[in-house]
Write a structure and sequence with these properties.
alpha/beta, six-stranded mixed sheet
């Protein structure tokens, strides 16, 4: 149950705290006073997004805190649009916040009306209402549905049906042959690149090596230098080292010159080899486009393809077993789906009957409500399509609810549905945003009675314009707007019994007669 709601710097609210009571909490106020801010705060604390534009002018953040029986939630919206969520003072993600608050508060507002007008959501309402009877069958159905999915995936991994499998085998054989015929070796690309570089630069290599050899063969001065050192090298060790170094250099130069001469002797340009290397490089390039970014990846692809081909060629028996099991599961799925449909129809009839009972109490005693079921393609939630069909008047044909129900009728319908499903949704707090839209007079009194009855077992928080509903409040709050220090601000204050009567009189229209009527409604 919601104990306290604290709002800071949100729209026109500088800071307010609202301590809610256990039963029927009513919020009233002039149009434009800021009632929508309260509903926005509820939605924000439950995980909805708010624009940074709602931060009070001149402030850098807006914050909403909600204290429940065993949970404190604080959400802060910053001027850059980011928000921070804390639960019991620990930071949580928005997804975690939504998970934690899913069963805290049930808000009736525009969103609920949209759900009722959306045919695709009607089956969810029926399933939620019939959770005790429908839930187990739906769980059983989903298990078989998932098992069928697993079998289908395994069948697909073995090639699927005979035609698809034969096609995959042909493709794999082609890929294996194409890669195998190339006779690739890891590291081959580098060798080809080196050979191509040598062949493509043949003339340059030949010219520069020949010039280098000529230069090495013409180092006559090196010999002359050695000749000058020989007569004196025995005189001094240092001179001996000079001579030895020259002899070593001369020998090394001779060895290098001989190696270059041998290399030049073997050097030749082979145009056919150059062509072969170019073709080989193109072949590898094309294979890389199909099978991997490198020869190593292509060879890995080849081994995987061989394993897959062997699996496909030897999978006949396994496929036969899987297809047999698949057929059995599909029969089982159809049987469960039939039971699921029957359970849904039973709960739908019960839901409609109970909603109609409340609609009768709300001056809609000519109404008729049913659920039209239709079969659809199998899906994770069964074979059923469902839609509420409705008639507000005796003798009028049933039509889709969204197309025939008026605004005032929708308010009463939503209240009846909320009452019927109150125990279905395991929430302790129900919020109504102007459930009295399009309502007045006697119907207003009947709605007030229904909300008061609901508040005996649930905490109810309601924004209303109806005096009859306001009079049933166990806790009454006035939302008002004023100018303080040249700034407009909204305040929310709890009302004493006398103040409640004055506010109810204002809603009625003011004056002595309104005051007397307010006392009468309040039972004073």
């Amino acid at each position: 149950m919601l104990r306290l709601l604290k709002i800071q710097n949100l729209a026109l609210i500088p800071e307010v705290e609202i301590e809610f009571g256990e039963n029927l909490n009513i919020l009233t106020g002039e149009t434009g006073a800021g009632k929508s801010i309260i509903l926005g705060s509820f939605n924000f604390i439950l995980g909805d997004k708010l624009s940074a534009s709602v931060i009070r002018h001149g402030e850098t953040f807006a914050r909403v805190s909600a204290v429940f029986d065993d949970l404190i939630i604080t959400r802060t919206l910053k001027s850059d649009g980011r928000s921070e969520c804390r639960v019991n003072d620990e930071i949580v993600t928005l997804a975690k916040l939504k998970e934690l608050t899913a069963n805290l508060i049930n808000i009736h507002g525009q969103h609920d009306t949209e759900i009722l007008r959306d045919k695709s959501k009607h089956l969810d309402i029926i399933d939620a209402f019939g959770a005790q009877d429908v839930g187990g069958i739906l769980k059983e159905y989903l298990q078989v549905w998932q098992a069928i999915g697993e079998i289908k995936r395994e069948v697909a991994s073995l090639g699927g049906d005979e035609t698809t499998r034969a096609m995959q085998i042909d493709i794999l054989k082609y890929q294996i042959n194409e890669i195998g015929n190339a006779e690739l070796t890891d590291g081959e690309e580098q060798e080809i690149d080196e050979a191509l570089a040598k062949a493509q630069n043949f003339e340059k290599i030949n010219l520069n090596l020949s010039s280098a050899l000529t230069s090495l063969n013409n180092l006559a001065e090196l010999g002359a230098a050695l000749s000058n050192l020989r007569p004196i090298e025995h005189i001094d060790d240092e001179i001996a080292r000079f001579a030895e170094s020259l002899r070593a250099s001369s020998a090394e130069i001779d060895e290098t010159a001989n190696a270059i001469s041998d290399y030049l002797g073997c050097l030749e340009f082979d145009e056919e080899e150059l062509k072969r290397l170019d073709e080989r490089k193109d072949l590898i390039k094309n294979l890389k486009k199909k099978y991997g970014a490198s020869i190593a990846e292509i060879l890995t692809f080849l081994e995987t393809a061989k394993i897959k081909l062997e699996t496909l060629e030897t999978s006949d028996l396994k496929l036969e077993e899987l297809n047999k099991l698949l057929a059995e599961k599909q029969v089982k799925l159809t049987e469960i789906a039939s039971r699921l449909t029957a359970a849904r129809k039973k709960k739908a009839a019960e839901l409609c009957a109970r909603v109609l009972t409340h609609l009768n109490d709300l001056a809609m005693n000519g109404s008729h409500l049913e659920v039209a079921f239709a079969e659809k393609s199998p899906s994770p939630n069964g074979f059923d399509d469902a839609e509420f069909i409705f008639s507000a008047n005796i003798g009028q044909p049933l039509k889709p609810l969204a197309s025939v129900i008026s605004g005032g009728e929708m308010s009463r319908f939503m209240l009846a549905l909320k009452i019927v499903t109150a125990d279905t949704y395991q929430v302790k707090t129900v919020v109504f945003d102007e459930i009295d839209t399009g309502i007045s007079g006697k119907v207003g009194s009947q709605i007030a009675e229904k909300m008061s009855k609901l508040a005996e077992n649930k905490q109810v928080i309601a924004v209303t314009h109806l005096a009859q509903i306001a009079a049933k409040a166990t806790s009454h709050f006035l939302i008002s707007k004023s100018v303080v220090n040249e700034k407009t601000q909204t305040t929310i204050l709890p009302l004493s019994e006398g103040e409640q009567i004055a506010e109810i009189a204002r809603i009625i229209g003011g004056g002595d007669s309104a005051l007397a009527h307010a006392r009468e409604l309040k039972g004073c």
